[in-house]
Task: inverse folding
C-alpha cells in the first residue's frame, strides 16, 4: 500500500508539472504575441504565436505567412527552419498544411468539368480567362488521361476577365467555350446574362487565400500554385495512391 501511495503521489506530481509547463508556455506565447502586436501595429493582425522547435524562438502566423521571433519580440525572422538530422523543412511543411483545404468544401456545381478516360484522378483548378499561365497549364493538362478536372473561374485580373468568364459560363457548352478560348483563342460568344457562380467562386478564393491563378488543388487538400509541370502533377497523383 505504501509503494502504491508513493506511485500515485509521483504520478500526481508529474501531471501537475506537465500542466504547469503547459500553462507557462501558453502565458509566454501570449506575452510574445501581445508585445509583438504592439510593435508591428494593429493593421497587421497576428493569427497565432507558438513555440517553434528551437528553444526561445516562436513561430508567428500572419494570415497564412510564417515568421519567427525571439522571446522579447525584438527581432522578426523571415526564413525556413530545417532539421539537419533528417533534412526536413519544417517551415515548408507547415506552409503546406496551412494552405491545405478539405476537398469536400469545393462545390463541383460551381465548376466547369471535363472527364478524360475513367476520370479516376481528380484535381481542381482556379483560373482566370485572361491569365497566360492558366492557358499554358490548360494546354499541359490535355496530356493527362484518366482524370477529372474541375475548373473554377475567378476573374481577378480585369473587368474583361469578368466579362469573358460570364460569356464562357453562359455559352451553350461552357466547357467547350472555355477550352476554345484558353487553348484555341476562339473568343466566347455567350451573352453573359445567365446566373453564374462567379461571386461564390470569388468568395471561396478570398476565404482560402487564393490570390493568384492558376491554383491547383488535389483530393488530399494540398495546393500547387502556378503553372505546374505535368511531371509534378503525375508525381503528386502517384503519392495519393
Result:
Amino acid at each position: 500500500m505504501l509503494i502504491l501511495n508513493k506511485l500515485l503521489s509521483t504520478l500526481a506530481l508529474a501531471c501537475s508539472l506537465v500542466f504547469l509547463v503547459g500553462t507557462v508556455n501558453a502565458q509566454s506565447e501570449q506575452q510574445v504575441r501581445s508585445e509583438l502586436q504592439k510593435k508591428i501595429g494593429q493593421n497587421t493582425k497576428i493569427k497565432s504565436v507558438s513555440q517553434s522547435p528551437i528553444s526561445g524562438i516562436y513561430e508567428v502566423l500572419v494570415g497564412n505567412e510564417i515568421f519567427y521571433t525571439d522571446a522579447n519580440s525584438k527581432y522578426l525572422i523571415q526564413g525556413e527552419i530545417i532539421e539537419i538530422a533528417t533534412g526536413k523543412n519544417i517551415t515548408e511543411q507547415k506552409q503546406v498544411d496551412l494552405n491545405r483545404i478539405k476537398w469536400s468544401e469545393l462545390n463541383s456545381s460551381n465548376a466547369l468539368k471535363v472527364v478524360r478516360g475513367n476520370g479516376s484522378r481528380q484535381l481542381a483548378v482556379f483560373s482566370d480567362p485572361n491569365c497566360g499561365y492558366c492557358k499554358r497549364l490548360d494546354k499541359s493538362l490535355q496530356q493527362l488521361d484518366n482524370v477529372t478536372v474541375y475548373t473554377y473561374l475567378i476573374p481577378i485580373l480585369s473587368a474583361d476577365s469578368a466579362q469573358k468568364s460570364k460569356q464562357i459560363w453562359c455559352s451553350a457548352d461552357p466547357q467547350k467555350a472555355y477550352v476554345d478560348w484558353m487553348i484555341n483563342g476562339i473568343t466566347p460568344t455567350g451573352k453573359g446574362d445567365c446566373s453564374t457562380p462567379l461571386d461564390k467562386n470569388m468568395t471561396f478564393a478570398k476565404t482560402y487565400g487564393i490570390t493568384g491563378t492558376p491554383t491547383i488543388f488535389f483530393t488530399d487538400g494540398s495546393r500547387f500554385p502556378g503553372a505546374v509541370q505535368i511531371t509534378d502533377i503525375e508525381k503528386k497523383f502517384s503519392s495519393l495512391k
User: Anything to note?
Assistant: Residues 6-24 have pLDDT under 50 and may be disordered. Residues 2-40 form the longest helix (39 residues). Residues 97 and 222 are 8 Å apart (CA to CA). The chain has two domains: 35-99, 103-239.
